[in-house]
Write the structure tokens for this entry.
Amino acid sequence: MATSHRTEYQIAMLWMEGPLSFLEQLCIASFRDAGHHVRLYTYGTVTGIPEGIEVASADDILPRTDFLKHERTGSPALHSDLFRYHLLSRNDRTIWADTDAYCLRPFESETGHFHGWESDKHVNGGVLGLPRDSETLGALLEFTADEFAIPDWYGSDYAQELRAAAQAGQPVHASEMPWGVWGPHALTHFLHKTGEVQHSFAQHMLYPFTFKQRRMMLKPGLDTAPYIRSDSFSVHFYGRRMRKRLIEKENGVPPADSLLGRLLAKHGIDPREAPLPALDQPQTDTSMTPLPIAKTTSAAGTNLGDLAEKYGSDKGPAKHRYTELYNMLFHPYRDQPIRFLEMGLFIGGPEHGISADRETTDLPSVRMWLEFFSQAHIHGLDVSDFSWFEHPRFSFTRCDMDRRENIRDAFKVAAPFDIIIDDASHASHHQQFAMLELFPKLKPGGLYIIEDLRWQPQAYERAGITKTADLFQSYLHQGHFQHSDPALAAEFDALRPEISGAFLHQVRYLKEKRDQVLVVHKR
């Protein structure tokens, strides 16, 4: 009988700089205690490193400045993606692990592949092993070598949109594409393309708790048998979300009888000796969930453009520059208890050929609004699910705007809003249906704003329908609305007595460009 020979693997991790909390200490120590040699790469001073861990310079793999000077969102996620691919290409017998991945048993591989499904759609790279001669690894390195490379895994419509932007001299940077473009989405695509996805583990082996099940790991007395099986290798804690939950709901320390609490006791780690950083402090986590780089500007002096960069919103100076206008329009509302509605919460979705059931991981503009408006209640609407986001001043409604009655039903009993922003699909009929249903829900003196008027998605746009920019140009020039559908024209005309004023701004406020943003003021 032939004997199976398995290679012993070292574990490589990255923490850019700053202190490690008990969560990272636990994960790092778990690999050491499972018998692995662990190498922690750093760019700056890191404190709280468990004993027996090798520390190495991250600059030897990927100089930080060579990549970060090109970033637009402030998130280290893209750098982390790139780092792990270069690291694997230069090291044998190495498996990458995020600092929020806990080792249940030694990592073993007969092929050099070590990766697993996180959902029925994506293979995650939070734990990643690829042979140096892997076709997938080579494809990932080639694709990420170009910061403006066009991904073809989001559908032909989105790829065509990116090509058109590049041909117009405005190529879209990776940081402005859907989250995961260099991470799990690219990894899954190339694993399928090369056929190496056959090596991917079942979900329970590396991600026994899904992103949406992460709270279960803090539930006292939880029976883990339905999640963690005998052949499970690791547990992913979804670090940034877990830290936030611990601070907001658990006073910074997990229940002693929760899974996380029991694991801390097993490895002799006292969470009080390595507390979690405050939520408003910069994070240096490089796991697969993107993190904003915080700034220390006081609330009174914070500019919306700075906040857009901090949280990675495309409304800021790197992309659309809407924040320049919003700074002037919204300043009087900053410390008022207003009600604010934004439709469309994150790039991607059916308008780009991406499933409405996509996994969502961040809310850049909502985070921006919550910091800018200190007393506001922010309400979000999207065709995808963002109900996982928890904040006492945030509420969410899921709605498919392709049916007008869905919009009507979603806000049938809603209190009036002070500001409404439509940044959803950008389809003309979606914009117009939403305004007809929601303008009556706007308080007197309120503002109704529609963004991205110049682009309509092929997946949704109806042939022959009047564009929203043209609709309002007719109102501004002739005093009444002209529409290809007379019934809709009549409905908009019925709103005229309530409209105090309206104006259109061109792309990036350049007169020679096309109309881009509409602002309507209610009497």
